[in-house]
Design a protein that fits this description.
heterotrimer; A alpha+beta (169); B mainly alpha (459); C mainly alpha (477); B: 459 residues; mainly alpha; Formate dehydrogenase/DMSO reductase fold; two-stranded antiparallel ribbon; 18 helices; C: 477 residues; 4 strands; 4% strand; globular
Chain lengths: 169, 459, 477
């Protein structure tokens, strides 16, 4: 059970990538270590496992909810008070389409935002070891280990050229 | 398109977070001054609600005047955000980077402002609650979804919600940055808002993919919103000049024209006020001006189509309206001003690269555009209503009162006030996007020349 | 900067490139390889070419025969000429819109469009077919003024022959502008044909290349001409769509006042242009073995454009529909009765399905868009849909009897006009003639621009980035 978080700080990308390689070679689980950057890098730039996500399901699910709700609201309100206005039918499909479209898109957008936050694993209440210099251009390689392997992890990071090591529980 | 000096991340943080970490001296007096105008504006709105719409110039037959014009104007301005943020993100245009957040912010605040106008226009605004919600279940009175006046708030609320959420999601990395740069209550605030952002590859990937997905979802909403606003007018056969099929794309293209021009105004102010010369460069104004030339010319084409088909109808009241709009005082002057400020002067000037790269000229021409676009909406709405028709017993021409003009001025001050307030707590330029561009930039040596290049990820 | 130290030497580009004949990634090609491969496509598959050319030529003759017979039989029956008007509208829609692919993305400096510029620009040449088919229409177009009364038209006080003159002038200008766009961008490739082919191709290349040697001044002039002709072509195209849609459709129906219709016509032309570009690229890739040039990137980008333009089709359609449906004036109701639930409902419903609903549901899936065949299937569906859409518009418009054209609004919805044998011959003949023109053009010059392909190789290099791979793409100003 991983109970320690160790962060190695680098100023250049290449040593950080070496650290990632080293941790993988040392047999640490791919999901237990990660690279932290203050700016996005191309996918796979540090040799990390490219994360799989299911973000595309969220807007689809949201759209279905929005579409269903909007049909109920538009059809329901028209049938509940069936008054002919402007010579239009009680169930005016083309007017309904507009409201249905907007509500479908609204639900899809809200679901997408929830999906982005959820798939990003946010809110992250236990962020582990972190350093503010990451948002100043430093690159962090962070690993969650149990105490039996923490020395090994630290030595891999130092061996790759980490300028500083930080710990958190 | 590649004039830039190399700036490291520490300096990027220092420069772009100066609004939050080292607030400029001009900020507080400006905000206080604008705040004063805003309060006066609210007082005038309160006065109008108390005394009734009689204090305005609205009356039979001109029921819609300056308020609805300004409502449409602000909805139009709001279209810049998604235009720039979404379309340029989807086309991977590099020059969008310094502009996206400020444009999205302008969208949010101008939509909020736009929504206030139908509220104050109602005369008895508290009754809007009954109109939106069921009055009571026993009587079962629901909003009439067949009415464009219901479609409108639904569309605008959807756009507002989507834009706000889009803004927040894209702000997450910079909230993390601010959390790292501050102390005390500010750190606590940003820590909560950042939701524990760390910057691992998963989070960055979701930012990229999510940004593209949200852009793709927001684009149809962006097109639909101003189309639905245009249908407030276009579906009405009773008013000359309104019942035209071209209103939807005409309004949308006009919105893009005025919105992007407003972004140019805002960018010039950002560069001057916060001294962001390294981030907001002449090449951005050049690119925006070229986009505006295309958009403005398309808008002019739509204007031409609208006019020609009005005359095509051979319908006497329609032709009489057009004669009123183009030849009769005071509309003839407004028509000339609208044409010159909305197209002829700005586009004529933007054809020259020296003007496109001159930030002061871009600032003034963009202001011209918005004067012209406000007049365009005024000329669409009011002349058609003020025509003389059978069974209309009064036909005084419409003169906006001081109350209406004051509320117009209030709206400009309100949007600016909100933008400045935002800038005190959140960066107006996305820092991570600026830093990303520096990671992805390099050059290729071809012969003796080093040609600037961008790194694109392999599929 | 981290990037400079992270990017490996450019001389190692090939080891980071994608293998040949794969769909994804960047393929490294040498300039001489590009020239020889693309020049060879003009003479490849001679027997297949001859077979197809013969079939298309025969079908073209069938079309011309159909046209002549229709002139003999139906010269006095204006209501029966709707299918020819629809065919011309369709050819204008497809052939007019395709060259925009060669214009807009180029102005936006997109690299994915480079292999598509030649085949797109060449579609402007089917303007020859459009003009030929329009000539008989000029004889059957109803006069503007009857018994001293002028019907609604955009030619307010102009002479009676005005629509005829201006539509021909417009089509001719469009053809010239399109030819200018095509030719100005093809100069370096004609020079390549002069230098690397034999026989009549070499002679043609020498004539058309006009002494091109590739000096700096020539290249600068080339880019300037492409920009100028591109802009000019776009403006003329919109104008011609405006003329054709108003004179041959709107003006034929009393009370039909539709300011968005010319833009709807233009927008669907862009949609059709994207669709035909996808189809042509698919055919070129499959039958000429051009997998290294027409890659996933091209189909993915065009697929997105097709998806977006299908959405725009329904947007423009609905913008008109909602105004008429909501307004419920006499003219509004007549429009809905005629074009939506009236005599051509059999063309409207499938047309809408194929121009919007089906391509939208097909192309919305990522897996379909990120494939070569997916967008091609969508393109075929769209083209059928737009043909039906044009039939709906023009056959309905021309079905209004001449004695009703001058009314205030349409009081009697005309009955359905079904196509007869001559109409089928004309539609088939028009499409075949256009395909024949394209086939002949690409026997004289490669379907993919040689200089564009070479320039892309010059401006891009696959590189290693830390532990990943990317492509450096130069952005010269």
């Amino acid at each position: 059970m991983a109970d320690r978080s160790i962060l190695g700080l680098f100023q250049e990308a290449e040593p950080a990538a070496d650290a990632m390689d080293g941790l993988a070679k040392a047999g640490f689980e791919p999901g237990s270590f990660d690279v932290l950057t203050g700016t996005p890098y191309p996918e796979g730039a540090f040799g990390e496992h490219v994360p799989q996500h299911r973000l595309f399901r969220f807007p689809a699910f949201g759209a279905i909810i929005g579409f269903t709700t909007s049909i109920l609201i538009t059809a329901g309100t028209q049938m509940a008070f069936p008054m002919v206005t402007g010579g239009k039918p009680i169930l005016s499909l083309f007017a309904m389409i507009i409201i249905m479209y907007e509500m479908t898109m609204l639900a899809a957008v809200i679901a997408t935002v929830i999906g982005i936050i959820f798939e990003s694993r946010l809110p992250n209440l236990n962020p582990g070891a972190y350093d503010e210099r990451i948002t100043e251009g430093w690159i962090g390689v962070v690993i969650s280990v149990d105490s039996t392997r923490s020395q090994e992890a630290e030595s891999v990071l130092k061996g790759a050229g980490a300028l500083e090591i930080k710990h958190a529980s | 398109m590649q004039q830039r000096r190399v700036i490291d991340q520490i300096e990027t943080n220092r420069i772009l977070l100066n609004g939050q970490l080292n607030t400029p001296k001009w900020w507080l007096p400006t905000v206080l001054g604008l705040g004063f105008i805003v309060i006066i504006g609210f007082v005038i709105i309160g006065f109008m609600v108390n005394r009734g719409l009689g204090v305005t110039g609205l009356s039979r037959p001109v029921y819609w005047g300056l308020f609805i014009t300004t409502f449409v104007f602000w909805v139009g301005i709001s279209h810049a955000g998604i235009m720039i943020s979404a379309i340029l993100r989807l086309t991977q245009a590099e020059w969008r980077r310094p502009v996206t957040r400020a444009a999205e912010l302008l969208t949010v605040f101008s939509l909020l402002t736009a929504l206030i106008f139908p509220l104050v226009h109602a005369g008895r605004p508290w009754r809007i609650a009954y109109w939106i919600l069921p009055y009571d279940f026993a009587r079962g009175i629901f909003p009439n979804i067949r009415s464009p006046l219901i479609m409108d708030p639904v569309a605008i609320s959807t756009y507002l919600t989507g834009s706000t959420l889009f803004l927040y999601v894209a702000l997450l990395p910079d909230l993390g940055n601010l959390r790292d740069r501050t102390k005390g209550w500010q750190k606590a605030l940003y820590t909560i808002l950042a939701l524990g952002w760390r910057g691992n590859p998963r989070q960055w990937q979701l930012q990229t993919v999510g940004g593209i997905l949200l852009s793709a979802l927001m684009l149809p909403i962006f097109v639909s919103v101003h189309s639905i606003v245009s249908w407030d007018f276009a579906v009405t056969p009773a008013v000359e000049g309104w019942h035209s099929t071209i209103f939807a794309p005409y309004f949308v293209i006009g919105a893009v024209h005025s919105g992007v021009s407003a972004v140019v105004t805002m960018m010039a102010l950002m560069r001057w006020l916060w001294k962001w010369d390294d981030f907001i460069r002449p090449e951005h104004f050049d690119a925006l001006a070229r986009l505006l030339i295309v958009v403005a010319t398309a808008w002019l084409g739509f204007t031409f189509l609208e006019l020609i088909f009005a005359v095509y109808s051979l319908d006497a009241p329609e032709i009489a309206l057009r004669e009123l709009q183009i030849f009769a005082w005071p509309w003839n002057i407004m028509f000339i001003v609208f044409l010159f400020t909305g197209y002829i002067i700005p586009v004529g000037m933007w054809l020259f690269k020296s003007v496109r790269s001159n930030i002061a000229l871009m600032f003034w021409t963009s202001l011209f555009v918005n004067i012209g676009m406000w007049l365009e909406r005024f000329m669409i709405i009011v002349p058609g209503l003020s025509r003389r028709t059978p069974f209309v017993y009064t036909w005084d021409s419409y003169r906006p009162s001081m109350v209406e003009w004051s509320i117009l001025v209030w709206s400009v001050a309100w949007v600016t006030f909100l933008m400045l307030l935002f800038s005190r707590f959140f960066p107006l330029i996305p820092l991570f996007e600026q830093k990303e561009s520096q990671v992805f930039v390099d050059s290729i040596k071809i012969g003796r020349v080093n040609v600037p290049a961008i790194l694109r990820e392999q599929e | 900067m981290a990037t400079s130290s992270a990017i490996a030497g450019h001389s190692a580009a090939e080891e980071h490139a994608a293998p040949h004949n794969s769909d994804k990634g960047h393929v490294v090609l040498r300039p001489e390889e590009i020239t020889s491969t693309l020049v060879a496509t003009t003479s490849a598959g001679a027997s297949k070419f001859k077979r197809w050319a013969l079939i298309l030529a025969l079908l073209t003759v069938v079309g011309i025969v159909g046209l002549v017979l229709k002139l003999i039989q139906d010269i006095d029956h204006q209501e029966r000429w709707g299918y020819l008007a629809a065919t011309i509208g369709f050819l204008l829609t497809v052939g007019g819109g395709a060259p925009l692919i060669a214009v807009a993305p180029v102005l936006a400096k997109s690299n994915w469009v480079r292999p598509l510029t030649r085949l797109s620009a060449a579609f402007s040449l089917i303007g020859i077919v459009t003009i030929l088919f329009t000539i008989p229409m000029l004889f059957v177009l109803p006069p503007l003024v009857v018994d001293g009364a002028r019907r609604r038209t955009i030619w307010f006080e102009s002479p009676d022959y005005t629509p005829h003159m201006f539509i021909m002038l417009g089509l001719a200008t469009l053809l010239l502008a399109g030819f200018g766009l095509f030719y100005s961008s093809a100069l370096p490739d004609f020079a390549a044909m002069r230098d690397h082919s034999t026989g009549w191709r070499q002679r043609l290349g020498k004539t058309m290349a006009r002494g091109w040697v590739g000096t700096t001044v020539q290249w600068r002039t080339l880019r300037m001409r492409i920009g100028m002709f591109g802009t000019f072509y776009f403006l003329v195209l919109i104008y011609v769509h405006f003329l054709y849609s108003t004179d041959f459709a709107i003006s034929m129906v009393p009370g039909w006042r539709d300011a968005i219709f010319p833009m709807y016509h233009s927008m669907s032309s862009i949609q059709a242009g994207v669709a035909i570009a996808i189809l042509t690229a698919w055919a070129a890739r499959r039958y000429l073995g051009l997998q290294d040039y027409l890659r996933l990137d091209q189909f993915w980008s065009l697929g997105r454009l097709l998806f977006a333009s299908s959405l725009l089709w329904v947007y423009f359609f609905f913008s008109a529909f909602i105004v008429f449906w909501y307004g419920r004036g006499e003219a509004d109701k007549a429009w809905v009765d005629m074009f939506i639930r009236g005599p051509m409902i059999w063309a409207f419903l499938p047309g809408m399905f194929m121009a919007f609903l089906v391509p939208w549901w097909w192309l919305v899936w990522n897996r379909v868009r990120t494939s070569v065949n997916g967008p091609a299937i969508g393109a075929v569906i769209v083209l059928f849909g737009l043909l039906l859409d044009r039939i709906k518009i023009y056959v309905s418009s021309w079905a209004v009897p001449p004695d009703q054209i001058h009314d205030k609004y349409l009081m009697e919805i005309p009955r359905t006009v079904w196509p007869n044998a001559f109409d089928y011959m004309i539609i088939v003949g028009g499409i075949s003639a256009s395909a024949l023109v394209m086939l002949l053009v690409f026997r004289a010059i490669p379907v993919i621009s040689i200089w564009q392909a070479q320039e892309y190789q010059l401006l891009s290099k696959p590189v290693k980035f830390i532990r990943g791979h990317g492509v450096l793409v130069a952005k010269p100003d």
